[in-house]
Design brief:
Elements lengths: L1 E6 L3 E6 L4 E5 L9 H14 L9 E6 L6 H14 L4 E6 H10 L4 E6 L3 E6 L5 E5 L2 H4 L5 H16 L8 H9 L5 H7 L3 H6 L2 H9 L3 H25 L3 E5 L15 E3 L5 H10 L10 E2 L36 H12 L2 H7 L1 H16 L4 E5 L2 H17 L6 E5 L17 H10 L7 E6 L5 H12 L3 E6 L5 H4 L3 E4 L14 H20 L16 H15 L3 H10 L4 H10 L3 H10 L4 H15 L1
Parallel strand pairs: 1-4, 4-5, 6-9, 9-10, 12-13, 12-14, 14-15, 15-16
Antiparallel strand pairs: 1-2, 2-3, 5-11, 6-7, 7-8
Helix pairs in contact: 1-2, 3-11, 5-9, 5-10, 9-10, 13-19, 14-19, 15-19, 16-17, 20-21, 20-22, 21-22, 22-23, 22-24, 23-24
């Protein structure tokens, strides 16, 4: 059993990988005196409530105060390891667990809005930036405690004749009693911030009823939220921002264009559970672990578990999308598409490895075999169809296999993506060999047809690449290289033909173009193997020869006609000053690379002279 624990100051909640939950009392925080002992008691108490406690393999705790007291976090981690012999233990801060849960372990920003407030940004390289979270004396701007305090200040100002009247006066009296005794009431409660925060719902309700004073307080709080969230998003380098906490649904501020609000994928307990399963998330340097670092649980979550995927979420800021006019709708869609480059940039290292594999496959006599279902399959079919005219290769060199067969390229075939057996059969029908590269494309990362294809390809010795839009998926785990382009929720929740599809098309462009350029199907930035099959392409061929060689149009045309309109042969002939037959011989000796063929000709010329 694998368990994640969300340990707060007021409560403690444990969740197992089987979906079993247990709750108990919290602890005052690791930074407090006796904090480690109190935290250990709280965690043990909730784990004792779980069935088969002895079967715990791994437990991760997101604990309040861990960030401020790293030594205490290490001590708690060791104490947990002693309490659960043989189990892997991990401790991190509650804010990190909340970030992992809200964004499913991917980079981005999370704004936690409760009694206090903190924004946490994590970029693709694991760098963390905290914005606010300094507590009620130094910060927590826009928090529940801040809203409650500003509301009470307005009440007291009115009572002294220094401010306008407000409905908050009656609300404060009803909640706290006589206003002249308010300081004592707050002090007696133990936690001034927590008690003050109980007044925040009254401020929100009064603002909703039209009270001008309460509206001013809430407007200023929303301005704080926007400032905090925007700062965190820009620090993360990823446009996604998730709001969590009790105040998250209290109001809906207007966010800048470069901030894209997303629904939280999970709560802090879900984040702690993910940290108990995986130790290769961007957050790892903020986690204290017992024992050697390793992945405790394989990335093989159920293919049926799609509801929690980021690409399946709906954006809460678009609840009224159907009321937008055309101009506003276009703005929203274009803003969403504009986030794709940042997601691609984060995946660039993996994409480069994919290009290397594709280049090796093409140059060794293998093929590029795309596998997809639905939109990814259709995008792959387009990319494969464009390779022969662009690069002069055989249609058999880049092939798209779509779940449901050729008919699925133009219409949806229901149920085809679930047919695992068809994947192996389709690859075998194409004569799969160990020189091929199989690229599986699926937004969810769980499509059975794609997963089975990659598994079959690896068993046959072929190289494999996964192109997915969610983190830590079964399809990614099944591939030699996983290109995870984390595009997040769509404008239409679950409609991954939108920005996820845009990202997939760009990845396919990069993989096929990178492979073909590396295999010698380009000279500089010119597509010298273009098939000059119509008047437009013949004009392009003439332009390529002119630009690449500096020859005039008559010389370029003569070289092309002499070579039978084979652009690369004509280019080598002009640059090397030889006829078409000699240009072909040089190209054959240079493995089809125009630059190598020209250098060979120049070397021969120097040697002969």
């Amino acid at each position: 059993m694998i368990v994640g624990v969300d340990l707060g100051k007021t409560g403690c909640r444990a969740r197992s990988d089987g979906g079993v939950e247990a709750t108990g009392l919290g602890a005052p925080g690791l930074a407090e005196h006796g904090g480690v002992e109190a935290a250990l008691r709280a965690v043990r108490a909730v784990l004792d409530e779980l069935p088969d406690r002895a079967a715990v393999q791994s437990v991760a705790v997101g604990a309040a105060g861990a960030e401020a007291a790293p030594a205490a976090a290490r001590e708690l981690c060791g104490a947990l390891a002693e309490a659960f012999p043989g189990a892997r233990t991990a401790v991190t801060s509650d804010s990190v667990a909340a970030h992992v849960g809200a964004l499913g372990g991917r980079p981005g920003a999370v704004l936690a809005l409760g009694t206090g407030v903190v924004a946490l940004a994590v970029d693709a390289h694991g760098h963390r930036t905290q914005v606010d979270g300094w507590g009620p004396w130094l910060g927590d701007d826009g928090s529940g405690a801040w809203i409650g305090r500003e509301g009470l200040r307005a009440v007291l100002l009115h009572a002294e004749g220094r401010g306008p009247g407000t409905a908050l006066t009656a609300a404060a009296t009803a909640r706290f009693g006589e206003l002249r005794r308010l300081p004592g009431t707050l002090a007696a409660a133990g936690s001034t911030a927590r008690t003050t925060a109980t007044f925040a719902p009254d401020v929100v309700a009064a603002a909703a009823a039209g009270d001008e004073v309460a509206t001013d307080v809430l407007d200023r709080a929303l301005a704080c939220w926007v400032a905090l969230g925007t700062s965190a998003v820009r620090a993360a380098g990823v446009p996604e921002l998730a709001l969590v906490g009790g105040l998250a649904s209290a109001a809906h501020p207007t966010w800048p264009a470069d901030v894209h609000l997303v629904g939280a994928a999970g709560d802090p307990a879900a984040g702690a559970l993910l940290l108990a399963q995986l130790d290769d998330l961007p957050h790892e340097d903020a986690v204290v672990r017992s024992g050697p670092v390793r992945v405790v649980a394989p990335r093989t979550s159920s293919v049926d578990d799609v509801d929690v995927l980021a690409t399946e979420q709906s954006r809460p800021d678009l609840a009224d999308l159907d009321t937008y006019d055309a101009g506003r709708l276009v703005d929203v869609l274009l803003e969403a598409e504009a986030t794709v480059p940042a997601a691609l940039a984060a995946a660039a290292p993996a994409l480069a490895r994919a290009v290397d594999l594709a280049r090796t496959a093409i140059t060794s006599g293998g093929r590029l075999l795309y596998v997809g279902a639905g939109t990814p399959g259709r995008l792959a079919a387009v990319d494969a169809a464009e390779c022969p005219p662009t690069f002069g290769v055989s249609p058999e060199q880049v092939v798209a296999l779509t779940a449901g067969g050729e008919g699925a390229a133009t219409q949806a075939i229901e149920g085809a993506e679930d047919d695992r057996g068809a994947a192996a059969a389709d690859l075998d029908a194409r004569g799969l060999t160990d020189r091929d590269l199989v690229v599986g494309i699926t937004a969810s990362g769980r499509t059975p047809y794609v997963l089975a294809a990659l598994e079959h390809a690896r068993a046959a010795g072929a190289a494999t690449v996964a192109v997915v839009n969610n983190p830590h998926s079964p399809v990614a785990a099944a591939a030699d290289v996983a290109v995870e382009v984390l595009t997040g929720p769509e404008v239409l929740g679950g409609s991954t033909r939108l920005k996820a599809g845009t990202a997939q098309k760009i990845v396919l462009n990069v993989v096929s173009t990178g492979a073909m350029v590396g295999a010698g199907h380009a000279y500089g930035a010119w597509m010298v193997d273009v098939a000059a099959s119509n008047e437009k392409l013949r004009r392009r061929a003439r332009r390529i020869v002119r630009e690449a060689t500096g020859a005039d149009d008559d010389a370029a045309l003569a070289a092309l006609e002499a070579s039978g309109w084979r652009t690369k042969t004509a280019l080598v002939a002009v640059l090397a000053g030889v006829g078409a037959d000699e240009a072909d011989r040089l190209l054959e000796e240079g493995a089809g690379r125009a630059r190598v063929a020209v250098e060979l000709a120049r070397t021969l010329a120097r040697t002969s002279s």
